[in-house]
Design brief:
The chain has one helix at 11-20, and strands at 31-36, 44-51, 57-65, 79-82, 85-90, 95-102, 105-113, 123-127, 130-134, 138-143, 154-155, 161-166, 170-175, 179-185, 191-198, 208-214, 217-222, 229-232, 238-241, 253-258, 263-268, 273-280, 283-291, 294-301, 307-314, 320-327, 333-338, 348-353. It has 354 residues and is mainly beta. It has one domain (11-353): YVTN repeat-like/Quinoprotein amine dehydrogenase (Methylamine Dehydrogenase, Chain H). The strands form seven sheets. The protein has a four-stranded antiparallel beta sheet with strand order 3-2-1-28, with no helix packed on it. The protein has a four-stranded antiparallel beta sheet with strand order 4-5-6-7, with no helix packed on it. It has a four-stranded antiparallel beta sheet with strand order 8-9-10-11, with no helix packed on it. Strand 8 and strand 9 form a beta hairpin. The longest helix is centred in the first third of the chain and has 10 residues, at 11-20.
Length: 354
């Protein structure tokens, strides 16, 4: 079912909601930004320290071999971090590497194998006591942090999975072939083994890529559509939102992160920008785009809601970079720090640990 909300004249109310919903958290320890080299000959997790006092800066801390190989493409969420634990998928090895934070250091820990018959992990999600993985042919859940299989794996309709995300009562997988798969959860949060395909409207079904949850509402980017942002609720109702114009191929919000309140940030790859949207539970509005010095892919908001990290391939040919933007009380972005080139062509996945 397609429903388009009329939000004309609602911008000030939407911005007010964003401003009044920002978290006030003082984590009191180092802020780290993590990404992966995605190297098919040997994957590594790259750890940067974000200095937030004085002039913000990003400095390389370490590069951690995962023990697996990369090679994923057209995906997001391959690196995640939650509290003291994180995960990175190794596409070429059919494994996930556990990451552990102890005080102000991050290290790799155990290797988690995929379920039998499941291959090519492209995206992971962490929620409560579960790790969720989507790959070339399956979605699966593991008890966390033990890594043991939990629940029932779900066969995906094809090999085009872009990202897996998890809400309160259901999980979703974006399929670049043109669908969103809704995955049922058990009462304890594992995958229940069943799925259904959301019917998307023709103006919001071209190449679903990034996704994120706000409670039990999933936002996603049908990147090559005119309505390049959309919401899906647990009953499968879809609420498309017109994106920046002109649409694809000039603009294509591709990868998504949830900010405070009703703010969403999308990596607009061809537009070389972060595109900002506001929403309620039945629609939304495109606000503006903030330029990035290259082609952005994955992005992540810090747990305290103050920072947005974006990975991008620099326009000057210097390879993969991380840019960090500060987030103001209204959801606006200001470039704060950029990583130095490391001689890596591109990064895959980004997460923030505080």
């Amino acid at each position: 079912m397609r429903i388009q909300a009329n939000l004309a004249g609602g911008m000030l109310a939407l911005m007010f909601l964003a401003a009044t919903s920002a978290p006030a958290v003082d984590w009191g320890r180092d802020t780290f930004v993590l990404t992966s080299t995605n190297d098919p000959s040997g994957n590594q997790v790259v750890v940067f320290r974000l200095t937030t006092t004085g002039t913000p800066a990003l400095s390389l801390v370490t590069m951690l071999p995962t023990g697996g190989t990369g090679g994923a493409g057209g995906n997001a969420g391959i690196v995640q971090f939650d509290d003291e634990m994180g995960a990175v998928a190794n596409y070429g090895s059919n494994t996930v590497t556990e990451l552990v934070r102890y005080n102000d250091s991050i290290n790799t820990a155990k290797t988690i194998n995929l379920a039998a018959g499941c291959t090519g992990p492209v995206s992971v999600a962490l929620k409560d006591w579960h790790l969720y993985v989507a790959g070339a042919n399956c979605a699966e859940s593991h008890a966390w942090p033990s890594g043991t299989l939990d629940g029932t794996k779900v066969a995906l309709s094809d090999s085009s999975a872009g990202q897996i995300v998890v809400g309160k009562t259901w999980a979703g997988v974006t399929m670049k072939s043109g669908t969103v798969q809704q995955l049922a959860l058990t009462s304890w949060g594992a995958l229940a083994g069943t799925s259904s395909s959301v019917t998307l409207p023709s103006d919001a079904n071209n190449t679903p890529l990034g996704a994120a949850f706000w409670g039990d509402i999933m936002g996603f980017n049908p990147a090559h559509s005119a309505d390049s942002f959309a919401l899906v609720d647990k009953t499968g109702d879809v609420y498309p939102v017109l994106g920046p114009q002109p649409a694809y191929p000039s603009n294509a919000p591709c990868w998504l992160a949830k900010g405070a309140g009703n703010v969403w940030y999308a990596g607009n790859s061809p537009g070389k920008a972060v595109s900002i949207f506001f929403s309620d539970d039945q629609g939304g509005v495109f606000y503006k785009s903030v330029p990035v010095a290259g082609v952005p892919t994955d992005l992540s908001v810090s747990p305290d809601g103050k920072w947005l990290a974006v990975i991008y391939a620099a326009s000057d040919g210097s390879g993969g970079h991380v840019a960090v933007f500060s987030i103001d009380a209204y959801g606006g972005l200001t470039l704060a720090a950029t990583s130095a080139p490391l001689g890596i062509a591109s990064f895959n996945g980004v997460a923030i640990s505080q």
